Amino acid sequence: MGIAPPLSLGEMTTLLITGGAGFIGSALVRQLVAETDARIANIDALTYAGNLESLGVARTDARHRLHQVDICDAAAVRAVFDAERPQAVLHLAAESHVDRSIDGPGAFVRTNVLGTYTMLDEATRYWKSLDAAGRGAFRFLHVSTDEVYGSLGAEGLFTEETAYDPSSPYSASKAGSDHLARAWFRTYRLPVVITNCSNNYGPHQFPEKLIPLLIQKALGGASIPVYGNGENVRDWLYVDDHARALRLALDKGLPGETYNVGGNNERRNIDVVRTVCALLDELRPDPAGPYARLISFVTDRPGHDQRYAIDATKIRAELGWSPREDFASGIRKTVVWYLENPAWVEHVMSGAYRGERLGSLGSA
Question: Which residue of the set 99, 147, 235, 266 is catalytic?
């Protein structure tokens, strides 16, 4: 299959984005509406982690259209393709919380595996209906995670050639979705590009993930739980940097290729917690004392990978991406945002999740 010139996001371009009201998806939608002339067809089921408030001014922009659709519903997905006629798909919709996948793996298999199959199948049907130029320019960007690679030891980095070795129901379901996306390229020639990213953080993240959860626990004077001994290492990627990487992968990425996206910001979990506590001490001091006094170590979760770290050489060299934020700048922006937006937190926390421990298999 010939490779078309890079996709130019002009006023006639329509992008179909799944999960566009979620954490990463909403950051991407906000960027695209602010920095391009593209039209956005946003498919989101608006589950607990999807929030229209996260879209900001993009929510009411004339170039943004929301379709409240379950990606497992083939007829509804097909109707969106036929109505919107997109030039590309950016597939971000997924169940994403490891602890939640331990308690309820079925939802992860359904959304991440069956939902991805449905998107690929309907995209292929639509793609085949296009003329030759449209087929050549079309892209399906499948957004995934570094967790599919399993756990690293003290040394080494994940590359695009690292063998898959998932440890949790979440990472196994994402590995399955990656394999489907790659198979659709190889079997049907659908022009698929895959990205695998490290841990994202930043504004508008649902407070079940480490950083926003610990901010809310600290501000409420509650115990801040740290799994095991806090020595697990993650590579942290600021969400707006990730959104820029996705735009480049869509614009310049080659079909059939995978691009790893990492922030080159390895930190032990305990160091992340202490950094956030120190920032809160500076920005919102607690008369009762330093926030680090609230840290408590709890039983580790089952299958907790020791270390993730990404080698992002390929996307830097081939697509010209590099992060704008290091961890120091990104984490300060994140803490400031949560301190300045308590109403957003209150609204998203008004559902079933109240910050309780998930994924413990009944352990303390």
Answer: 147
